[in-house]
Amino acid sequence: MVLGFYFSRAITVPLVRVTGELKETAGQFLEAASQIEIAGKVLSQSSREQLEGLDKVRGMLEELKEVNAQYVEGIRELKETADATGVSGMDAFNQMRQARKIMKDIKTSSENTAKYVRNIEDIAFQTRLLALNASVEAARSRGVGSGFAVVSADIRNLGRKSSQAAKNSLDQIKHTIEAVGGGADSMQVALKKFSDYGVVSFQIADFTKEASNVAVHLKEAVGEIASSMGRVGQITEKVAAEVKESASVASQTRERALLVKAQVERLAELVGV
C-alpha cells in the first residue's frame, strides 16, 4: 500500500509539473498565434489599401499621360504655327523692304522728271519771249511781216499752253513726291515694327522649341514612372496574395492552438492541476 502510494506519487508529480508547463506553453502559443493572426489581418488590410492607392496612382498617371500627350501635340502645332508665322513675317518684311526701295526709286525718278519739266517750262517761257519779240518786229515791218506776226502769235500761244502744262505737271509731280515721301516714311515705320516683331517671333519660336523638348522629356519620364508603378503594383499584388495566405495560415494556427489548449486543460483536469 505504501509502495503503491510512493509509486503513484512518483508518477503523478512529474506529470503534474509537465502538464502545468504544457498548459502555460499552450497559453503562450495561443497568445502568439492570436497576435500573428491580428498582425496578418492588419497587414492584409494595409496591402489592400496599398493596392487601392496604387490603382488610384496608376489611374492618375494614365490621365497625366493623356494630358501630357495632348500638351505635346499642342506644343507641336504651336511650334509649326510659330515657324510658319516666322517665315511669312520674313517674307512680308522682305517684300516691304523691296516696296520701300521701289518707292524710293519712284521718288528719285519723280524728282528728276520735275527737273526736266522745269527745263521745259523755261524753254516755253523763252519761246514766248522770242515769239513776242518776233511779233513786235513784225508789227514794225507792217505789211511785210503780217504773216510772220500770225505765226508768232500762234507760237506764243503754244508757249503759254506749254508753260501752263508744265506748271500743272510740276504740281502733280510735287504731290506725287510728297505722297511717295509720306509712304516711304510710313513704310520705314512699318519695317521697324516688322523688325521688332521678327525679334519677338524668333524668341517665341525658341521658347516654343524649348517647351517642346521639355514636354517630350516629361512624356518619357511619365512613361517610365507609369512602367515602374506597374511593376510595383505587380509586386504589391504578389505580396498581398502571400499576406492573405499567411493570414489564413495564422488563423488555422490559432484554431489549432485553441484545440491544443483545450486538450491540455482536459489533461490538467485529469491530473488535478
Please render the helix and strand layout as text.
Elements: H1 2-140, H2 146-271
Helix pairs in contact: 1-2
Report on this structure.
The protein has helices at residues 2-140, 146-271. The model is unreliable at 1-7 (pLDDT under 50). The longest helix is centred in the N-terminal third of the chain and has 139 residues, at 2-140. α1 packs antiparallel against α2. The chain has a single domain, classed as Orthogonal Bundle (Helix Hairpins), CATH 1.10.287. It is rod-shaped and about 185 Å long. It has 273 residues and is an all-alpha fold. It is built from two helices and no strands. The two termini are 24 Å apart.
For the record, the count of structural domains works out to 1
Radius of gyration, in Å, reads 57 Å
Architecture, according to CATH? Orthogonal Bundle
Total count of strands: 0
Count of discrete alpha- or pi-helical segments spanning 4 or more residues: 2
- Name the CATH superfamily assignment: Methyl-accepting chemotaxis protein
Strand content: under 5%
Q: Fill in the CATH topology.
A: Helix Hairpins
* Secondary structure: helix percent: over 70%
* CATH class assignment: Mainly Alpha
Overall outline: rod-shaped
Q: Main β-sheet: number of strands, strand sense, barrel status?
A: none
**First-to-last CA distance:** 24 Å
Low-confidence stretches: 1-7
Give a quick rundown of the structure.
With 273 residues, the protein is mostly helical. It has helices at 2-140, 146-271. The two termini are 24 Å apart.
What attributes does this structure have?
273 residues; mainly alpha; Helix Hairpins; 2 helices; rod-shaped; disordered N terminus
